[in-house]
Design goal:
Helices cover 65% and strands 5% of the residues. The protein is built from eleven helices and four strands.
């Protein structure tokens, strides 16, 4: 089976640009490592597979290249990139800086807004716990993302969530590699529970400590990941 045969078809929404829908679909597959580093993405075959011209395919691949998820070699090939550890470290620094400030903002919300935030985060946490039995990695990753997005939204900085997301492809792929590690899924839920408990108490110091622990989790396993997948990562 070649790479294109592994890619699911898309039921296109005619009210949205086809290039963006192809970009979203391929990005999701790359983040989940269903398209592995080194996989070749032939433009002509992708166009035939999706029933499109090569122009929207080219545009989608260009966007993926801008996020560092593919390498485009003109007149040769487009290849899923190796995971860039240096980029992942930069994004971790960015997220930590933003989310520490977000936590301080959330602890100072008016009572009504704070109460609504807690309810929404409890719902996210409940969903995460349901993903543990039986363990559903993909759904847990999505619930993890929803928990953090809820905090950005409540702090009134939703646009920063999109900014961080555009730069998170490398660390998201590392998370996909790290998530099956023994105890990792439960650790994610435990971290969120600790963050939530601190937010309920409006304890800024405890919330910041819990967030630092949470965001350091995936990158603490980089050495093991490099050993297990030497061809997939680069410093």
């Amino acid at each position: 089976m070649n790479v294109v045969e592994k890619i699911p078809a898309i039921k296109f929404d005619r009210y949205r640009q086809s290039a963006h829908q192809v970009f979203e679909a391929l990005r999701k597959l790359i983040i989940a490592l269903e398209l592995e580093p080194g996989a070749v993405l032939p433009r002509a075959e992708l166009a035939e597979h999706y029933g499109l011209s090569q122009t929207p395919i080219r545009d989608a691949l260009t966007r993926l290249a801008e996020e560092g998820l593919v390498d485009i070699y003109p007149q040769h090939a487009t290849v899923v990139s190796r995971i860039d550890i240096a980029s992942a470290l930069e994004v971790q620094f960015l997220r930590r800086s933003i989310e520490l400030e977000i936590l301080r903002t959330l602890c100072d919300l008016p009572e009504g807004e704070h109460a609504l935030l807690i309810l929404n985060l409890l719902a996210c946490l409940s969903l995460q716990k349901r993903c543990l039995e039986p363990l559903d990695y993909l759904s847990l990753a999505e619930a993890d993302t929803a928990f953090h997005k809820e905090m950005y939204d409540a702090a009134g900085v939703s646009n920063l969530w999109h900014l961080v997301g555009q730069r998170s492809g490398q660390i998201d792929r590392l998370r996909s590699l790290n998530l099956p590690a023994k105890g990792k899924a439960q650790a994610i839920v435990n971290d969120h529970e600790t963050i939530l408990e601190a937010l309920i108490k409006k304890d800024k110091i405890a919330a910041e400590k819990a967030l630092r622990t949470h965001l350091s989790g995936t990158l603490s396993f980089v050495k093991e990941i490099k050993t297990l997948y030497p061809g997939w990562v680069k410093d």
